[in-house]
Design a protein that fits this description.
alpha/beta; 7-stranded mixed beta sheet; 6-stranded mixed beta sheet; 10 helices
Length: 320
Amino acid sequence: MKYHKSSLIIILLILLNNAAKAQVTYFGEEVSANGKLEIFKNTTTLFTLQYSNYAEKEKFDEVIKKTWTITPYKIIKPEDLAKYDTLKNYSFFYFDAFVDNVDTITNTNVIYGLKLITPGITAKEKKEDILAYVTLFSDVYTNLIVKEQGTKSNNRKGLKAKLLNNLYNNSRFLNFSPGFLAGYLKQINDGLTLKQSRSIDYQFYNKVRLPDLAKETLYVPEYVREIFSSQPPKIETPTTIQEPYSYKLKFISNSELDSLVLNDNVAIKYLIYTQRSFDKIISIYDSKDDRIIYQRFYFQNPVFEMSDLNNIKEVVQSLK
């Protein structure tokens, strides 16, 4: 379904962020200090999805109901955001993108973000606060549109409209599905509840659960193998030869992974690979309670490699 109301463009134009932090980033400490967290807790959170996602609305609803406890919620269509623009007591999950520059490096960031809007008497008095967001692994065309928006100073409104139309109708997000959303929302929900913050250099492993991978299967989405297989083989030297990941590993489709994650009678550990411009983040979640049990950020090293699995194996071995 394609629905392009001018009101959709106008409301989403204001939902901008100014800096990229991590695959799952939240600002609980900051919004608690300025009083916005308590305001947020009294809102209803409106979730928007890509138009193609509404075919699985029941699955998304199941995931949100299970992991999102900090506020009441409702799933709405993107064009319906305009109805809530000037009303109090609403927060929003939405798709957006932006460019940030660090020294000579330009990063394109495609996100699924959570924002609180506090209406004012006039449009200029409206307050907007970003509370959290998920960095998405998007397709090449989407990244090109984001980069175009960041480099051209003229016709910004037209470029933004083009971007939002693409994000909601055409973009492909490799790391976004009902199952994946469970882990993301669990982190944001718990982080904001505990008034905690997390940024891009967050690296972590669970000393109790991660060693279980020595005997349990690590499930990996099929897109990871597709990307890995498409890369030219590296020329290895005696000092760079990588041993294979020696524990159990299984590649499955996103839909199969969703079914396992959403099955309360099954507990699995699964990997998510996120690429953001020239960086990557490798995460592992436990579907038993949707908690993250491993995460590593790789600066200026975007491609999934065998060494990423070996790094996981080395941590597991060090904890056994």
